[in-house]
Protein: ABC transporter permease
Amino acid sequence: MIHSLTGAVELGFMYALMALGVYITYRILDFPDLTVDASFTTGAGIAAVMISHGQAPWLATLAAFGGGLAAGICTGLLHTKGKVNGLLAGIIMMIALYSINIRIMGKPNISLLNTDTLFSGVASHEWHDFRLAYIVVLFAVAIVVKLLLDAFLHTDLGLALRATGDNKRMIRSFGSNTDLTTILGVSLSNGLVALSGALIAQDGGSADISMGIGMIVIGLASVIIGEAMLGPKRVFWATLAVVVGSLAYRIVFALALRAEFLHLKATDLKLITAVIVILALVIPTMSRSAKQKQQAKRRTAELAAGMRGKGAI
Structure:
């Protein structure tokens, strides 16, 4: 059980980068970007190819981030300059990237076993020391990326990006180029997704052409769960909620697999993900609805009491 939970925490921090990318498009830009499912594999494929050919892991990871930026730029250009619907632009790029990813990787699967990765230096002979150091390093990476994103969103360009998602027409009337901010947001989102893919590939020891399938759902689950736990507040707390949501999602998933009475298998990943997302969406909605009904009943009771008081007079 301890091994499962530590593994869930490690994956939670790595997937948090992908969830932060989804947060940019889903919450900030209100852009339904499905490029995520393919750009995740793009990042993993670029990193795996470069590392397997002897390139430095940090350089391969940086190149993976650049590959995600390029994929996002293409989606943004399709939407803003090509006037293609945002959802359709993401689907088109997702389909195109499948073939591009095969070209990049050269084959459906690349192994990174017995090669140096970003995490090779963290390895230790003592299991407990290794896991603790691993978690600390991944925590530091997730927090640094979160803080850098926070800092960017408080710059003039970041504020323009946030305003674009809130009201395009208004920010355009102030002379801001909404096409540029949209492209920037989608590009940054996919860059973070690809970065997450690169880390996952190095952690798992391989990159697979199908490893990105369903990433958009996992990202949305992390965002929704985090918001349900901490609530959508200021940028600092909103991005922190995404990281917490990613951790919570992986821990819930690990516990669900370990629950023997549920009879679940690793192949039930997509089903578990769908159930978690449904619960994260339905429970807060039902809670708000129940509170609204209670408030309405209270107001009705107060009004009735007031009417009775006037009648008695």
